[in-house]
Amino acid sequence: MHIDGVRYALDFLTQPRSELARPTAAGKVECLACAHRCKLAPGARGVCLVRFRQEDALRVPWGYTAGVAVDPIEKKPFFHLLPGAKALSFGMLGCDMKCAYCQNWFTSQSLRDQAASQEAVPTSPEALVAAARRLGCPVITSTYNEPLITAEWAHDVFALAKEEGIVGTFVSNGHATPEVLDYLADVLAGYKVDLKSFSHENYRRLGGKLDAVKETIRLVWERGIWCEVVTLVVPGFNDSDHELAAMAEFLVSVSPDIPWHLTAFHPDYKMTDPPRTSAATLIRACGIGRQAGLRFVYAGNLPGQVEPWEHTHCPTCGTVLVTRWGFTVLENRLTAQGSCPRCHHSIPGRWRVPVPAPHAH
Ligand code: SF4
Ligand code: SF4
Fold first, then answer.
1. CATH classification of the domain holding 114
2. pTM higher than 0.70 for the full model?
């Protein structure tokens, strides 16, 4: 479909919503869903292109998905949230950033790039939650594109899921606002944030702001939402010792218990020059994270090549607690309470499915 047709069709899959909209003194409507904070005149569209103002209302995406799959939660990646669980994962269309290496560009850039081909399929929160239940998924995840730009839809899906004891999670670029985090806090159990670089200039090139992402990590952690951070290590872009150490030191300043995933880049989309990330680079990066004081550092995307950085170790006695190969959990020795079976150190994370809230009817 031509890109104008995609936009036109998607405009019908929207609702007027006020939770993340604020009128400004200048007669505009400010969108609070991401750190761009677009201030929209009548008829204007946000940077993400999927949210727009119609008369006085902010219309936001609602009632569709663009790609649904059952993935292991380790693929998100969450390593400290229900290890081995299946996550019903759904995508939407669009993004508020434009990373040249986006591995999900066919969904995230579908409103900017004619080559992107993923289409929207109408659905409902009820149908998604029923599918999660039927497929034995204790987790439901908004992923594949940027979930913040469809925060109201995620909120409605996750609120219904929570009633069934299914936890909602975000796989996000973390370009959030305090307002959207407050809005989601009750229904969001886990938040994966990409920390793409520690350079303001790199973030500007990707279409976002470093300070907003740092603030998101801090606020998510403070709100008690389980947070894991991912850095795609791109040779020549963000893999210097200095930059990796700066990221790690920042994470330690929030909490040394935040798991940090360092994942291998492969050429994709419009970033085809840098070589693939080597196992040696990932192992070096993991060492920098550990040296800075992070207790849980993982290497991703190179299964079996990055020993011992795919596994979870007890930070007190060194016992291997969870053994992994790529996204597969080979052995989980954590106790039911999420502690080390040897020294009983409590490991930070979310280890048990919460008990569903009683139904109102
Ligand atoms: S989600 Fe972000 S980019 Fe989209 S309209 Fe809102 S503030 Fe702008
Ligand atoms: S923020 Fe994520 S989804 Fe958006 S363009 Fe960048 S990598 Fe892709």
1. 3.20.20.70
2. yes
